[in-house]
């Protein structure tokens, strides 16, 4: 063992610490790492919230490219496109800015904006270049953070946040509704409709519509909607109606509305409105089924209801109170006999009858109606226009009607009793008139006249009287000579030429387009015919008196037959002689020549007139002629008033005849003889003999005057003449103005004619009335045609009976 | 370096031949901070640097991280005609992927991404253990040779200059957004250039040999 | 270190009968297959390298022709497609006024590749025949070629970037043409050609000249 020696130290080499090789330069990769991570974390944090939208398909959507926009600002990007679990829809995952995602409510709407051509225009064209994008619309709500949504197929009708009212429009077919079509009110677009869809029952189409505030205030329960797209041609009882909306409505289509009656209630959301074909139908529909408490009644008619159709109005004293719903027939068992009866079901709006709207109880209305029926309320058919074939149901109070009661049944609607109609069927009236004429004892009258002539002949057999024919025949010879003279023969030729000249004038008139004036004249003629018709009615009544009158006249003639008339005859002979002398005089012979020459002059004047082209004046003359026609109407009215007096006149005549019957006829004959004597004295007097000479001189002067006219410049004179003619017509017009209503009508019609010519596309009453007048004339022509045809078939029936 | 006479026995282990011009030199240790060059062609022969390896490794690491950033961050964004087109680095690589130019896609990916990444990884693999004082890893020589051979083919810096040229070309027509990946790539290029300058090939080989032997 | 002067007497490994590793500089005795330091295959002078150089150079030249004839870029503007070759692209850029970019593209895509062809060809020739340029300068030329070679790839990258960026569906889109592939191949081939060139050969001739003097 050795001594313990100091041990060797364990020497470790210099510690190779890890930090030996580290230097500050290690910071570089650490810095790089840190920056990288920072950027990564930042982009992760800013990534935005993820939402999922479910669409039906992902057309045009590209993950990573398709943007989401809200109010036209990019708010996010589509991340991925995946299928839903059962492959039935596509789920789009997108990232949205956090700021937006925080206020995203669950009713937000998303849709894909693509180029679209729709009824309201072309939209989304920019997406052709930039690619489709998804648009969002929502009302931002703080704190709502919805993440799952269902996307829409199309842009929503109403963006969330738009104020207004949603309603539903219902139409029988979808031709009137097109998606996106605008809704107008008094020409301003106030809303829009969505895509129409079929009703479940399949017999109609409904579409959601949205009316923007503040215009939605105007929509009440009595608002009516109608289709204003394109143009409308309507041919109905009121006549022909052509209406064109604006050009925009022509292309886009559209729906307009107006509140037709007052008193409607504010409309709750999704209230259903019916859509009508046009404005007229809409306004007429105030009495449609949407009236809550319309009263349904049934009326049975025994007569033909041709011309009555569903929708025809029901009137009371001229006021429309309801409409006809349907027509039908049913077999009625009347005392064992089965008869087919015609039945019309009508509905009446009680408000129009003055009943309060809040009398909800139908029973009260029924009570009122049954009381009225007991007082004489009946239903009957009436014509909608004078010449129109359309019928309507009119309720009238006929105090002396047969007693009837409102038929009340348990299950059916109450039955309103009806009376026979007095439809003034023109054809029937005309036929009736001719029927009556036909019924006149014309044959007997003719026989009586023949008998009378026979007795007169026996008079003539009297040898004293035989001398009369001699002189009478001499008279006749003179007259014949007069007629046979060359000048007279030439008269027709002259007249012919004159007529030709006149006809050419008329041609020019026609080319100058006097149709409108003529139409106005026709209008007056229409009114005239109206009054003429009433006159005819009165004449009809008057003619009923005629047979009785004729009877009495016949008695009178019989009495006259028995009289001794020899002295009378002598006087008559003397009268004839002096008349003969008058006729034989040279002056009278020269008359035809004069007349001839005068007619020739007239013709010359007419030709100059035509050459002078004074048609314009004629036009205004026509105007006044129209006015004159209206005055004729007035005159006819007077006539009508006059004819009312005919029965009285007939009565007077009858009384006269009776008086004549009672008169001592000898005194009568004495008086007649005195009359004849004085007539003889008159004829024999020098003045009368000088009359033809005076006539001839007058004619000479007229002829020279016409010559002067021609040489002296016909034109100015003609114009002056026409001017004075116009003034004359104006005077007539002024005279007619004493009937103020007629004048106002003329002026308004002329004014409307001007308006019609000015504006295109406006509803012009002129057109409507013209066409309605034409239509009525056409119906009248048809009726007359029928009449003419029946006369043609048997023309002799008018004269000689069957 | 002195010139030996041909008659002297030449011990290969004490000599060093210039790789460029094959001139023979006596190998001696060069102090850190000094640079030994070839007399004839002035190629750098030895350039030991303090903590060169560490720096190289760290630069390679940074380059790797930047490469990752460049791949995954948005690279460029073009906005024109209302459309926005985003291109990442991978989109650029795939630009040729349709039609006849398809083979070029792989070449692009290699040149821009794959080869540089392989270089970085190889360098880290080779130098990492040595930086911490350990022996070099297995096949370190192979990987070092690989990294060296791949050097001309890693064209990251060419790419970035190309991107710059393209942007200048397009900038007049549209709106260009440059994303973080672009800057990461620029940094990557700078880092790569620095790293490559730090390397003296021969010194590293010597170090590798020495460490391997130790 | 010390610069030996204007005309140093340099002994090459070949002259010494030794083999130097091109990769790591280690000197070996002849006959050793692989370098002991780095494992690279050793060859004193790669005799076949010149053939490789010429082969790759010609390949690069051959592929360079379609690169210029075929379109490099296919631009579709609003449906209208226009194709432009490299040179056409340069002309277009000049028309548009971006002279700088046009210059860069022109230099990178036309000047550089062509000069590379010429330079490598010249260098290869210089090994086999006598040329005017000194070895030093040729070495610098070689270094320049090696450095610049990769930068020709810029054009390909530019095409790639434009193609990936400008894909705006309808408004505009740029797609690469076939010329991009052949241009890339051309650059690759010339790069390989340059890399195959044994730069030591440059100095051999010089040595030979020097020795002969």
Automatic annotation (TrEMBL), chain B:
Do you know which InterPro entries this protein is assigned to? PqiA-like (IPR007498)
Q: What keywords are assigned to this protein?
A: Membrane, Transmembrane, Transmembrane helix
Q: Which regions span the lipid bilayer? A: 56-76, 106-128, 149-168, 174-194
* Presence of keyword Transmembrane: yes
Entries under Pfam families matching the protein: PqiA
Q: What is the official name of this protein in its record? A: Paraquat-inducible protein A
From TrEMBL, chain C:
Q: Might you report a single GO cellular component term?
A: plasma membrane
An example of a Pfam family matching this protein is: PqiA
Q: Where in the cell is it found?
A: Cell inner membrane
TM regions (residue ranges)? 53-73, 99-126, 147-166, 178-197
Q: Which UniProt keywords apply?
A: Cell inner membrane, Cell membrane, Membrane, Transmembrane, Transmembrane helix
Top-rank taxon: Bacteria
- PANTHER family the record matches: INTERMEMBRANE TRANSPORT PROTEIN PQIA, INTERMEMBRANE TRANSPORT PROTEIN PQIB-RELATED
Q: What is this protein called?
A: Paraquat-inducible protein A
What organism does the UniProt record list as the source? Answer: Salipiger bermudensis (strain DSM 26914 / JCM 13377 / KCTC 12554 / HTCC2601) (Pelagibaca bermudensis)
Classification of source organism: Bacteria, Pseudomonadati, Pseudomonadota, Alphaproteobacteria, Rhodobacterales
